[in-house]
Here is the input.
Amino acid sequence: MWDSFWLSFEYLIKSLRRAGARPLHPELGGELDKEINSALWNFIRRDTSVAKFEAWVYAHEAALSVALGAELHFRLIEMNYADRYQVEDMRQQLEAHLRPALMCECPAVADEDVIAMGGNGRDGRFFASVSECAMPGDDLWWLWLGKCQTCHTDWLIAQEERIYDDFFVARLTSEQADLIRNNGQWPQRWLTYEDVLRTGRALSRPCRFVEYIAPSLLWTVEELRRARPDITVAEMSEFLGIEESHVKDILKYQRS
Ligand SMILES: [Zn+2]
Here is the structure.
């Protein structure tokens, strides 16, 4: 008898704990839940300023305490928002709390983000639900419009597999995506390979090539010069992440 008493007591405690992490009242589900989730992910992926997030936290105390549970909510209101280590740690705690409920990777991807090819598996998670729904044409072979089949977010995607091995992605509004789908009107973004590489230089790191005259380097130099014949050696060295003398050797090899 005592056994079953303790079992049901334990069950009751566990249920209460579980309930603490979820909306208890139907009126807190739906839209508000969505708003809370979206604001928390915005903070986790750095799409909102820390100051703005802090103000938002204090304005949503009741709903947050239900959504996060008392313990995590307490840490969220007690933390020092001026301490970047605490802020970073809180991002990780919130992500650990929210990630199990993710239906697709989109909420965790920033409005402008870099998704490395291979490696940590983030590309696999993202492309599990994001698929191609438009391409601008063969001359812009690196660019495409992706749509998440789960949450319906539209993404502009530049696939850079020569120098940086990254996908550069930008979240689009549904108006921007409609312009692409219906009018073939693409945003002024990544319309040249030079612009793609500029993003790579700003947000990522170029690959190191084992082969001195690597085909990827040759093709890229060719691509850059075709689009803008007066591009300088210094500019190409910057975009490709190689020495100017290396660019000159590639140019010499191409002429030979
Ligand atoms: Zn999605």
